[in-house]
Design goal:
Blueprint (H helix, E strand, L loop, with lengths): L1 H4 L7 H16 L16 E6 L11 E8 L2 E9 L7 H25 L8 E4 L3 H8 L16 H8 L2 E2 L1
Parallel strand pairs: 1-4, 4-5
Antiparallel strand pairs: 1-2, 2-3
Length: about 160
């Protein structure tokens, strides 16, 4: 829907068709719901994914994450990345950064409302190269093009707040 809103000022027939498809999908899923289970452990877990240069118009990548607690989602997002990534590792790393900040927010929130969580919070990722970069300082020389803020993830892994 976000992509379609880019064409709101000058929609074509293909855009109207896509909007109708989205609305038909929403209408067909009105009775779906989110289920939270009482017998499942409270520990949050997350899933993240991103594509490399998925937007044909701008070259930007898209990333998404979802965090689940007691069997149901509590936080999710899907967003086009703000800058163009130079490699798949950088794309994944940008997704890791957003997920890491979500993990810290969820962890802090649970602490504030006095709910115990096990650390580290596990985040499921489908890219071994990026995982090894987040766990291994030896690879830093090969990722100098990745901005310093993304190395914040390494600090959080070392502190035991998150694991991939």
């Amino acid at each position: 829907m976000t992509l379609l809103s880019c064409f709101a000022h000058n929609p074509r027939k293909s855009h109207w068709t896509a909007i109708k498809d989205v609305l038909a999908y929403i209408k067909g899923t009105l009775n779906y719901g989110i289920t939270y289970k009482a017998d499942v452990k409270l520990n949050p877990s997350g899933y993240i994914n991103s594509d490399f240069a998925g937007c044909k118009d701008t070259g930007h990548s898209t990333e998404g994450n979802i965090f689940i607690v007691v069997g149901g989602p509590v936080s999710w997002e899907s967003k086009k990345q703000e800058t163009v990534a130079l490699s798949m590792v950088e794309t994944k790393y940008m997704g890791f950064l957003r997920a890491t900040t979500q993990v810290l927010w969820i962890s802090k929130y649970f602490t504030e409302i006095r709910l115990p969580t096990l650390k580290p919070i596990i985040v499921h990722v489908d890219d071994n190269g990026s995982i090894s970069h987040s766990l291994n300082d030896k690879n830093h020389c090969r990722t100098k093009h990745i901005d310093v803020q993304y190395h914040f993830i390494k600090d959080q892994v070392k502190c035991g707040n998150i694991t991939f």
